[in-house]
Amino acid sequence: MINAKFKKIYDLSNQLQEKNYRDDYERLSKIEKNIGSFEEYLKNEMNESNRDISDERKKQLEDAYISKDKITKGDIVFNLYLIHFLHTEPIELDDNYKPLPLKENKVFEYGAVVSTSDETGYYSISGVFGGVDNDDHIALDKYNVLKSKIENNPLDELLDEIEKSILEQINDKK
After folding, report:
1. DSSP readout, 2-64?
2. Helix, strand, or coil here: 96?
3. Burial letters for 80-96: b for 16+ Cβ neighbours within 10 Å, e otherwise?
């Protein structure tokens, strides 16, 4: 039997994901006339996210990890991660409207994937307690603070914080 509080949070995370897809769709539909319906867009995005990744991409993802830890609290697992990747800045134009060379920045992302499973399936919420930084030392410090927080705080308190964060994002009107 899945933790009832986690199930509620999992359902909220699905609402947030749909909101994010809808926001992306609305933004893209203003510039792409042949985008189709939101349902078609959502189906395409879901198919893309469920697609198996190549062995090469798996290797790239594995190489991106700086740190990862697994913390289990009852039937809930927190998989912490600290990864690095290159982020390409948007195209900039010079005074003659010619593209300038692209700029790449090394970015460090930290957070947790919270998951559980039962006889009905596997449930996970990605990007919990996450953040991004351009400095590896600061990102590592934040990762260690996150690790300590998850190790030292009760599960109900952590789940309450996750729920609050997701609700704030759902209700954010941007």
Report:
1. --HHHHHHHHHHHHHHHHHHHHHHHHHHTT-TT---HHHHHHHHHHHHHSPPPHHHHHHHHHH
2. coil
3. bbbbeeeeeeeeeeeee
CA 92, chain centre distance (Å)? 27
Q: Which amino acid is at 157?
A: E
Taking the C-alpha atoms of residue 115 and residue 118, their distance in angstroms, rounded to an integer, is 11
- Enter the tokens of residue 12: 């909220």
Q: What is the pTM of this model?
A: 0.82
Residues 10-60 pLDDT 10s: 999 999 999 999 999 999 988 888 888 899 888 888 877 777 777 777 777
pLDDT digits (tens, 9 = 90+) for 127-174: 999 999 999 999 999 999 999 999 999 999 999 999 999 999 999 865
